[in-house]
Amino acid sequence: QVQLVESGGGLVQAGDSLRLSCVASGLTFSEYAMGWFRQAPGMEREFVAGNKWNTGPTYYAASVKGRFSISRDNAKNTVYLQMSNLKPEDTAVYYCAAGRRIVITSRASEYDSWGQGTQVTVSS
Question: pLDDT at position 103, please?
Answer without folding.
Answer: 87
